[in-house]
Amino acid sequence: MSLHHSIYDSPVFRQACRQFDLAADILGMETGVRERTKQPRRCLTVMLPVRLDNGKIETFEGYRVQHNISTGPAKGGIRFHQDVTLGEVAALAMWMSWKCSLVGLPFGGAKGGVVVNARDMSTGELERLSRRYMQEIATFIGPNLDIPAPDVGTNEQVMAWMMDTYSNHVGHYDPGVITGKPIALGGSLGRREATGEGVSWFTQAYLTDAGLKAADTTVVVQGFGNVGSETALALAAWGAKIVGLSDFTGGVANPRGLDVKDALAYVAANRSLQGYQGGETVTNAELLELPCTVLIPAALERVITEQNAGRLQCRFIAEGANGPTTNEADLILAQRGDIELIPDVLCNSGGVIVSYFEWLQNQSAYYWSKEEVFSKLHTMLAKAKASVEGTKKKFNCTRRTAALVLGIARVAEAKAKRGLFP
Ligand code: NAD
Questions:
Q1: Less crowded by CB within 10 Å, the N or C end of the chain?
Q2: Do the beta carbons of residue 86 and residue 61 sit within 8 Å?
Q3: Is the CB of residue 325 below 6 angstroms from any atom belonging to ligand 1?
């Protein structure tokens, strides 16, 4: 099947397909199995009429893509962003499949999205949109079928409205349908921190392997939402110096170090980093090229490109975001050879791991301590890191391809053992 005839065709979907093909080449995957494993299983498009506060009706478009349901219920977040496309959601769903499989979770992969600038909505409008989206996808998902979670533009409150809508739909409290909920509604301790905790854990582990210490480490983080802020807090608590931060309004840089808690308090009061006085104002493009030990993209896809990959001044890239590095940039980084890249499917897997713990706790109605959550999380991260490093050595490939080889092989094997239908 040619990609150009696919409804998912887009730069980001092609990026995910190219990454897949590099791993499938190493696995020697034949064409029939390759296409069947690569292409998303199914998708749903929904129209969402919402009553705005001014009395008018506005209709939004939403998607849910289930890339893989062969290895368990599908799993993946819901994005609210004005640039969401079906192709982007499909690429993100594909990455969820490999990620869940890589770290050994009993899930497939999915993603959802709504084309909306949620920042411009009132709380009431956002609630009506969230409930309507869940109402429309309710028959397509479920605790044993597909379990959503937060992503860009959605948060614990959105998860709470969606869980309530789904529970009303099925007629009983059913928290296992969605993860990333508030603690009061069956959320897991540590879920809010989980993705950043994982990004920070991998960063520390790889720096330690390279003989670097916290005190020698400077960090630049792009994106100051759930993932970016929790990563920055965790690395600052470890003792690293955060020298650059940004959000959609731009960035702030200070070689002497930024106070992450102070920046977070500013954002809580002002809704963005714009006007924050902690250092020099920089653009997002400039931020990525700042000298630092670790560069952490934690916003959107395709920000490390052929334009800037040759100019980066970091020693490590820890991908908090999904898909931040284009295929062309991957090649430049591999040629440079002086930057260690910790790929998204490994680096940000802490989020879905603790989402899995949340789902387990919901299914058993028995709740764990934060220490238990983090200790089990760290064990799974260490195991995934060791298997990626072993595979990287075995095939003499990039760390990204090694991680994808592991994730893809398990999905392909499960499909082969089940037969052609799942
Ligand atoms: P979020 O909505 O909480 O935060 C996004 C941040 O990025 C905000 O600070 C926003 O202002 C900023 N941003 C948006 N556009 C930007 C731009 N053009 N330039 C710079 N900054 C920009 O979202 P999040 O949950 O933190 O997700 C961030 C990334 O991490 C996404 O790629 C997401 O898929 C990935 N991720 C999230 C989780 C999770 O648990 N939330 C898990 C794994 C991966």
A1: N
A2: no
A3: no
pLDDT for 4 equals: 55
Residue nearest to atom 13 of ligand 1 (CA): 248
Residue of 195, 317, 319 to mutate, ligand 1, most atoms within 8 A of C-beta: 195
**Ligand 1 atom closest to the CA of 228, numbered from 1:** 26
pLDDT at 413: 94
Atom of ligand 1 at shortest range from CA of 355? 40
CA pair distance 311, 320, nearest whole angstrom: 20
Residue 267 is predicted with a pLDDT of 98
Tell me which of 300, 319, 342 is where a domain ends.
342
**315 and 248 belong to one structural domain:** yes
Is 227 a pocket residue for ligand 1 (Cβ < 6 Å)?
Answer: yes
258/276 Cα distance (integer angstroms): 11
The amino acid that residue 234 corresponds to is A
Half-sphere exposure of 222 (CA within 13 A, CB side): 28
Q: Which residues of the chain are modeled with pLDDT < 50? A: none
Flag whether 382 is in a domain.
Answer: no
> Are 167 and 212 in the same domain?
no
Q: How far is CA 399 from the centre of its chain?
A: 18
Residues 154 and 206 in one domain: no
Locate the ligand 1 atom nearest the alpha carbon of residue 250 and give its number. 20
- Residue 33: how many other CB atoms lie within 10 Å: 15
The CA 344 to ligand 1 mean position distance, Å, reads 13
Nearest CA to ligand 1 atom 22: 248
Q: How many helices and strands in the chain, by DSSP H and E?
A: 14, 12
Q: What is the pLDDT of residue 3?
A: 52
The per-residue pLDDT for 422 is 76
> Which atom of ligand 1 approaches the CA of 92 most closely?
34
Q: Note down the domain range covering 133.
A: 3-20+38-183
Q: Please give the Cα distance from 199 to 137 (Å, whole number).
A: 31
Same-domain pairing of 70 and 116: yes
Whole-structure pTM over 0.90, yes or no?
yes
The protein residue with its alpha carbon nearest to ligand 1, atom 29, reads 321
218 within ligand 1 shell (Cβ under 6 A): no
E-only strand ranges, 283-343: 294-297, 316-318, 340-342
